[in-house]
Amino acid sequence: MPVATLSLNPRVEAMQPSATLAMTARAKQLRREGRPVIGLNAGEPDFATPAPVAEAGIRAIQEGFTNYTENMGMLALREAISRKFERENGLAYDPGQILCSNGAKQSVALAVMVLCRPGDEVLIPAPYWVSYPEMARLAGAEPAVVSTSVENAYRLTPKQLDEAITERTRLIILCSPSNPTGSVYPPEELEALAEVLRRHEHVFVLSDEIYEHILFEGEHVSFASLPGMKERTVTVNGFSKAFAMTGWRLGYLAGELEIVKAASKVQSQLTSAPSSISQKAGIAALEMGLEPVREMVVAFRRRRDFVLERLRALDGVRCPTPEGAFYLFPDVSAYFGRETATGRRIEDSDDLCFYLLEEHDVALVPGAAFGTPTGLRISYAASMDDLEEALRRIERGLRALG
Ligand SMILES: Cc1ncc(COP(=O)(O)O)c(C=O)c1O
Prior knowledge:
alpha/beta
């Protein structure tokens, strides 16, 4: 009889665990030990889900709306999303071209899984959201990371895109506003990227627009709305960030019918539709209007300005102004090679984040997790009191490095 040995699927072995979750776990452990750790490592708004949305969820439970829904998500929800695309993005997606999933994370994973074939390349501008390369690997494809520069506010240039595309390139993943940098592509830069793609017809686009409403300057442009891009773009969005609904697990993708049908087939075999309760809440969110989001954005902008000013006052820290999301991604490489008071050498941003957590009680995420080891991510989804104290600790920590 063959004995089961613990060798796992090589695609799984090749994946990295989520570094953002690892940092959260370590910060929690220190807190349990009684340390006053301030966490600026979270990827979620520190606001409550708006009351009308929460109430719709409660009503769904009370009315017994607790069964499976259609695999693609309820038609009423997909109709509401279709109207949202029309209203906010100038995009006409039929409800049959929309698939609702357990968070935008699942939507991204499904899009990557159905589009990519083994050996394909997935172009991922860095700093990137931690999950993109791992999803590509899980699909049997290869992440092809293109590093952007702090000088260009971490935005991919048309030239970089043109030079990175090969015959094997199947997909490029764009995220604007970006996690982890907060950078936003202005419309003319998106158009310039689209112009390059028009010359490379074999490349699909995954446009992750989950932070679209958390925007401080300019207006959001959906990549699919650019001339000629809709047919080759899968648009991903969700409720987690704009409506402070991370725990409800509701996201969606939209694209060409064939792609959406394939993603729906995979979903039907993996998870089925998202929670019926969350779907009812999602409809309420889309009907509610954007006022609660606007209030949240006002608070985020105030915090961004505060953190940015303090960071820029620090010697050697370089940080572009983020125009969206709730993250800053300063370049801290000027601190590499220095030593802590206890004689430990800081080699990279992993060391720096570890030092700031262990010795100064502030949790950030090292840039290597996002493919850019010269930086680190600061989330300002935290109260002003916490931000003020955290900045004092970061200042103290960095100044103490000799
Ligand atoms: C860029 C980006 N895309 C997608 C997601 C997934 O969001 P969710 O699965 O909560 O809808 C996140 C969450 O952190 C994100 O930052």
